[in-house]
Structure formats: structure tokens, C-alpha cells
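Re: the request from the purification team.
They wanted to know what the chain is likely to look like in 3D before they choose a buffer screen. I agreed to run a prediction and write the result into the notebook, where they can find it.
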Amino acid sequence: MAARQKNGKQTVWFQNPPVIISAASVVGSREGEGPLGKTFDRVVYDTYYGEKTWEKAEQRMMLEAMQKALEKANIQDSDIDFMLAGDLLNQIITANFTARALAIPFLGLYGACSTMYESLALGAMLIDGGFAERVLVGASSHYCTAERQYRFPTEMGNQRPMTAQWTVTGAGAAILSREGSGPVITHATIGKVVDLGQGDPQNMGAAMAPAAADTIISHLQDTSRNPDYYDLIITGDLGAYGKKLAVQLISQNGYDISERCSDCGILIYSPSQDVHAGGSGCGCSAVVTCGYLIENLISGKYKRLLGIGTGALLSPCSSQQGETVPGIGHAVAIEMR
């Protein structure tokens, strides 16, 4: 017997679509200087943000993004039933310590750079299932903390290949509610881990593209929709090379999304900023969604969009052991009603 609110193999639909009643974003200077700079709530020009370490700076950014989302919704942290959040650092310490400060019942998530969309999907399930009235979701990353953990100390100035992406410094947060005004989440497609054998940690776009394509194809098949149902189909952080590959893979399965496809990692920086293939990190899709995308849904530029959070499921340990880089993609349909 099939689950009552499941469409096809991987997609769920929401009988009472949860509302995104507020969203907020805090970013670093490079992100603030990019094409989307005016869509963010706060731009921080000090990489340490007045703290002793980059890790503490990232935590402060997440906390302030969540506090700003609460302020915009005109509610208190005591009005939130659950907090769902994650980041890239070992044992998701940014989210853990932010949850400590807010004292909201907390579920920590790790989906690499897909974490923001994972939190949106799970938060919507909690609300539509009757388990919560309001859920606070969010994700963050910081260029310097990610470089230190996954690659090389920034002081070394290692040369980066053109396939490499620049980890976004920023945090995004949103509040989902059973009632209110704003964009609504109508469907979520939970991705599968896909690994086609790409093992270069400096080319995460190629590693994530197959998973993104698989999720988009599954969503369209499960919902019996054509790509033109959506004004925009946007991936999290495939970058220039990953986006091109994903579009090709989807085309091979009979769907042409080329006219309505974009990527948060491409939008957030301009070519003159020399970030090579584009942006990445948990904060990439988080700040673009909680800033630019939500703003354009509310303004009417978009009526229906499909966002796909993409994640490269590697670790420093797995890379050192010669493992390949598995990918994941979670899709969330956000619409104006």
C-alpha cells in the first residue's frame, strides 16, 4: 500500500502546503559585492566578524540570520517548535552552537551543500504532518573554515584549477508556518546518492551533476510535469561545469530545461570576481534562496520554481583514502498562491 501523500518513487506532496513566512541572509564581503548583493539582509566585511576564529564568525552569521528571520516574522524563538539546520564543519558545530544559543528543540542535519533544501523538505513534512506549527530552518558556510577543513590553509595560497568553486561565506534562514502569507512549499523530491566515479575533490560540480539530474528527472516523472511548469529550475551549487553537465544528462532522458535552468553558484558571483567555476558551500543555496529567490517570488517575477539543493558527500578522510565523491540532490517546489 502506497503512502497517502507520496507521488511516485521519490516525491511527496503537501496537502496543506507550508508557508515560508520569512527569510533572512547574512553574507561576506565578496558575496555582498556580487550581482545579488542588494538582496541580502546584511553584508559582513570582516572575515572574522569580530570573533577570534573563522569558525566562531560563521556561527555568529548563522545566529544573526536566524534572529533576523524571527524579527521579520515578528515572532519569538519560543514560538518555534523545531529548528532544523546544518553546515560543513565537523559534527555540524555551527548549527549545534547556534541551537545552544537559541534553545529551540533541534534536529541537526548534514547533507553537505544540499542541507538548506533538505531542511526545507523535512520542515515542510513536520508541518503538513501535524507535528509542528512553525519550523526554523537554515544552513551556513564560510570560505576560510571550509578551506581549512577540506583543502589547504588559506595562508598557503595554493593554485586552484578552473573547475574549483569558491565556498560562499554566508548563512540563510527561513521560517515555515502552517498559516500566514508568502510562498508555499507544494512538493519535495528526496534524492538518491549517485556516484559515477568522479574522484577529484576540486571538481565537485561534475560529482554533483548526476545526482541533480537524477532528482530533477524523478521529480518531473513523479509529478507528470513538464519543465515549462516552472518559471525557474535552479540548482544549488553545480557551478558552470556542473550545470552544463546536468542539462546534458537531463536532455538525454527527454527533458529540455536549458531555457529555464540556473544555478545559485553561478548567480552569486560575477565573472570579474575570479571564482573560477562559481560558488559552492551550504551557504550558497541558503543565501540565494533566502534572499534573491524569495524576493522574486514575492515580487511576482517568479510564480513557480523548483530548487534543487546539491551536495558533494565527501570528507577529508574519504579523499585521503582515494574514495570517489558521491553526490546528492533534494528538490523542493516553491510556489506563490
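For the purification team: The first strand starts at residue 6 and ends at 7.
Please add any questions underneath this entry.
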